[in-house]
Every structure is written in C-alpha cells, then in structure tokens.
Design brief:
Strand order of the largest sheet: 2-1-3-4-5
Number of helices: 5
Helix content: 25-40%
Distance between the termini: 12 Å
Shape: globular
Radius of gyration: 14 Å
Number of domains: 1
Strand content: 15-25%
CATH architecture: 3-Layer(aba) Sandwich
C-alpha cells in the first residue's frame, strides 16, 4: 500500500505552536513516528507539508495513479477550502482526514470541514497517533477490496 500523507499550514510549527493544544512533539517527530509505523506494517509512505493551498491541490491531483490512499491534515484549510474538496473529489483516491486536536471541541468555525465530504473517514483528537490510525484504516480498507 502506497500512501501520500499531506499536511497543511503551520504543521511545520508543531512543538512550537500552541503546545497546550498540539503537544510538544515536532514535525520531525511526527514524520519519524509515521515512517516507523509504516515500515512495521509494510506500507510505503511519502510525507509532505506546505503552507500553500494551491500546492496541496497540485499534490492531490498528482497523486492520481501513483498512490493507493491519501491521509490529509488540511489544518486551517479544513474550514475554508472548496479547492481541496474539489481536488479530492476529482482524483477519487480513498482519503482519511486527520486532525491532531478535536475541531468539534474548539471554536465554532473549526467545526466545519469542507473536505470531509470527500473523505472515507475522519480521525480527530487523537494527537499524532491519529496518523497511525489512519494508516491502519487505509491498509485495512485495501485488504477488504
């Protein structure tokens, strides 16, 4: 199973940005955690992060025919980006939406997810381990099909 893991704006600031919400682990820590788990279960992962919406759209579109699944933490774009929704709908790749914190327990504007409609699962509020759960979910989905 080949998975593309995409992270949106400010995730590069993990460990610095609001540690009371996102924890003290860094983005590097997150990448190492994901890579170790993927290796353990035999999945191949490519991890990317950008602060730019259009770059995320490009990466989603380029994933078509190259990846079996996408794990997407759109960060702030969750609540604003129809462009990400449209890209996900276009490529038809099984996608899991991941959030380190639980948007449903935060400000009202964070409770709206534009991308959720195009995702087969949403995992939120489980910290960095949510990414591992998303990997396991997609790998399980792949075995069922």
């Amino acid at each position: 199973m080949k998975l593309l893991i995409l992270n949106g704006p400010s995730l590069n600031m993990l460990g610095v940005r609001e540690p009371e919400i996102y924890g003290n682990n860094t983005y590097f820590d997150l990448c190492k955690l994901i890579e170790a788990h993927a290796a353990e279960i035999g999945a191949e992962v490519e991890i990317r992060q950008t602060n730019h919406e259009g770059v995320l759209v490009d990466w989603i579109q380029e994933a078509r025919g190259c990846f079996d699944g996408i794990i997407l933490n759109p960060a702030a774009y969750t609540h604003t980006s129809v462009a990400l929704l449209d890209a996900l709908l276009a490529v038809q790749i099984p996608t899991v939406e991941v959030h380190i914190s639980d948007p449903m327990r935060r400000e009202a504007f964070r409770r709206i997810s534009y991308v959720r409609e195009a995702c087969i699962e949403t995992i939120a509020g489980k910290g960095l381990n949510g990414y591992l759960e998303a990997i396991d979910f997609l790998c399980g989905q792949e075995k069922i099909q």
